[in-house]
Amino acid sequence: MRRETKVSRLRAHLTLGYMIELMTIDLIALDLDGTLLNSREEISPRNRAAIRTALENGVRIVLVTGRGADAPIRISRELRLNLPVICCHGALTKDFGANRTLGHVPVTLTYAKPMIEYAERHGLHVAVYSEELFYHLEGSHLHSTDVSGPAWKHVRSFSDVLHTAPTFIRFLGEDSVNAMRREFGDYPLHFKYENWLNFVECAVTSREASKKNALARLCADFQVPAERVLAVGDSRNDVPMLRWAGIGVAMGNALPEVREAVPYVTGTNDEDGVAAAIERFAARGQKKSA
């Protein structure tokens, strides 16, 4: 009896794998850092070619990232993608073609103000994303590589920019993250912790803001069911999105807990892992009609 059960489970697993291999993919969701971008923050020629082939086959492609809007919009235009961008960990969805905000789920000032004012008083390393700009205090050292460019602005005090609810807040460095967790960890918000080698960061968003929720809303708008979505990512905050999609693929460079959370693992971001996933699941067959 036990042997028959094991055989039945194996058959069911193989059948499921075969069905997934035959599944038609209508939309691809790609994380940026550690996924589409390699360790030099470049898009490899093979990744570009795979994306171009998928687009030519009629597949929609959306970037889903924790970054602010500027980088995903620039990359989407460069790759000639055909969907809005999902950024800020899902808190902001932007139609860059029409320069229109499709979805915005900010951190209410009720919770944002005490956190930011505390950080300023105690010299914590923090960045506030509001109205599609990052703000940080003059003279502060943020210990991060993505703190330059036109999207970053210096302020003397965060009170100068806290007129509207911020999209999200970034606490940067172990001391700042620990202090935030100690003082505000019981707030009804999403705390998204990430480790980049020896660097620790926590992004704070509304509880309703997530990559999964934003992608599900976008797919509903375009009438694409979850089972026809291929999602690829490498971070903890990608896992709900990867598990929601019909096919979720973790990068080979993802943490073990991320790789174990989904059925498929591709190559690393330095091994064209995105291209390998697209070639396997979404770049087969004849060109689709528009």
- Number of helix segments? 9
Sheet of most strands: 6 strands, mixed
Overall pLDDT confidence: 88
Listing every helix as H and every strand as E from the N terminus to the C terminus, the arrangement reads HEHEHEEEHEEEEHEEHEHEHEH
CATH topology of the largest domain: Rossmann fold
What would the principal axes of the Cα set say about the shape?
globular
Task: Write up what this structure looks like.
The protein is α/β, with parallel strands linked by helices and 290 residues long. The chain has two domains: 2-105 and 209-281, HAD superfamily/HAD-like (Rossmann fold, 3-Layer(aba) Sandwich); 109-206, Hypothetical Protein, Haloacid Dehalogenase-like Hydrolase, Chain: A, domain 2 (2-Layer Sandwich). It contains nine helices and 14 strands. The chain has helices at 2-22, 45-56, 70-79, 109-121, 174-184, 211-221, 239-244, 256-259, 273-281, and strands at 27-30, 60-63, 85-87, 92-95, 100-104, 126-130, 133-137, 152-155, 168-172, 189-196, 199-206, 229-233, 247-250, 264-265. Strand 1, helix 2 and strand 2 form a beta-alpha-beta unit. Helix 2 runs parallel beside helix 9 (273-281).
